[in-house]
Amino acid sequence: LDVNGNAIVNESSREAGALRRKMVADCGGTEKLIAMLSAVSLSSSSIARRMWELVSKVIGADVSKGTVGAEVAEGTGHASGTGPAKKQLVEGVVVGVQEQAAASLGDLVHGDAAMQMTVISQGAVVPLLALLRSSSQVSQENAARAIWYLCESTSNQGLIVEAGAINELVALSRTGSVRAQGLAAAVISDLAKGAIVEQEQEKEGPACEEDSSVGELKVSKGARLSVIAAAGGITPLVGLLTTGDPSGKEKAASALVQLMKDERNRDAVAKAGAIPPLVQLLDDVAPHAHEHAVAALAHLAQQSTDSQSQIAKKLVTLLSSPSEGCQRRS
């Protein structure tokens, strides 16, 4: 561990980890996990648990992570009985397998570009997006985390958007658990950042004329910022500035910063009531939240004199904060 308590990973450890992950894929492990995201049988439960244990050893995860239906997956439950009780047990097994499969895929692809492409090419995106609508909060969270990791490379993001990610993520940011909402905001933030990169690339070279379908929306390269806004993404992000956990607030602010790089989105962000919670983030304990809040407020200040006036009034109230850092940022 370094002085901050973070794990120090040398190059040989990274290479060994990548090799082990490749072995999991080469022996058909990733394909089995992807299949478990949707087509689950009772016999899959013990396999899912063993796969999770294997992946945990590969990436050093905590194998004790709780999942619905875990007792059955470990072999301590059984599917005997009839009627509602048996149905409930079977449903618990299905949910537990899906939770574990999504968690395993997320851990396998994190920080591994080659593994990300493998999993995407094997068809993981659509069933992961479907899990965002699961009745299980853990399934939603694990699936959102896996999708977030798949978005680490900008080159993957177009494929994920084409699969319908934007509408699903916006819906999750409205109705998911607090953690799931924060993860949805994290993915939206990365997709928005990727859109900026694509716009810069289009300025340097010929624009792509092909469009890809997301629900009823047409998404061309670099047009993602307006599509996220059109899908209703701004309002739940603004809400997260108040209701989210520290990470969720930070990711929501980051996403809004990226979205407002398209000047057409600034008025919508202001009308959604973003100014008060963004100013309040300046007094938040999360340092990255401060950075994103300052950037977001700077965009809004350029939007109109009315926004400038609102921001100024809110900042004046923070000058009485006992925090010297907050006073300085104000």
Automatic annotation (TrEMBL):
SUPFAM superfamilies: ARM repeat (SSF48371)
Pfam families: Arm
Gene3D superfamilies given in the database record: Leucine-rich Repeat Variant (1.25.10.10)
ARM repeats: 232-274
UniProt xrefs under InterPro entries: ARM-like (IPR011989), ARM-type_fold (IPR016024), Armadillo (IPR000225)
Protein name: Armadillo repeat-containing protein 8
Species in which this protein is naturally found: Haptolina brevifila
Species lineage: Eukaryota, Haptista, Haptophyta, Prymnesiophyceae, Prymnesiales
